[in-house]
Amino acid sequence: MIFKFFEHHASDNIMHHAITLDALRVLDAIERKGSFSAAADALFRVPSALTYTVQKLESELEVSLFDRSGQRARLTSAGQLVLAEGRELLQAANRLEEAVRQLESGWETQLRIARDTILPVEPLLRQIRAFHQLEKPVALDISEEVLGGAWEALVGDRCDLTLGGSGDLPKGAFEYRLMGEVSFVFAVAPEHPLTLHDGPLDAAAIAAYPAVVVADSSLSTPARSVGLPDSRQRVRVADMNTKLEAQRLGVGVGFVPRHLAASLLANGDLIELPCSVPRPQVPLYLAWRKDNTGRALAWFVEACLQANWLDCHPLPD
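Above: the chain's sequence. Below: its structure in token form.
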């Protein structure tokens, strides 16, 4: 980017830049409106003020920015270069001004949300859709985590709000709220041999077949494993949706969250089997840093606590 074209030293040796944001706004308006007079109207200034600004800039840069030979003022090659790079500076300045205004108002410029894939994405999308109705220019960054990754993202400052954290709560300056408890079912594909097993499945019967497990997404904390006894083979996948699809296709067996598998169980794509291996319910939490007082964060905390995470339906068209 062009941050400086020519520098002039004033009598007190303070550095002076020829290009100012005001000059860039004038060039932008003239190019968009097609004439000095139309640009002056758009900027609520008199044409002579714009003419002076452009002439002063041309004099300091020692280049012609406009070709004035025709009826319409057209940018020269130098003018096109100044405007192209200058518009990036104008955009950056606008973003900075907006960030300062938002900081003063309490609204963040960005909110990072990490969702454990044990939670469906639809409720979060519903909240995002509702948030957009507030017309607050807050950039939303949504990421996916699994098991310990949900906590690590918060502790490691990779997110501002984590959804669906489970297991041991991390120590530190965090706020927690219970989102609900997940129940699990043991499920296999309709054609899987275990469907012919007589009576509740025990650990030995399950261990005879490959198991599909979701890999912990944490990078630095010890990885967690949940829900299955030792198996002759394990297939590790990245998220819950892939686990469900793998079990639907008969790749392996395993416990699945009932709320995520509900439609597959209802239409027979997965078969729930009785199992004597215990798989207790798991509480899920949302959490954020206590010192984060952003209004967007507060809005999403409240909205997510009201959302229906464990019995949701697809978004309407």
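The longest strand covers residues 174-182.
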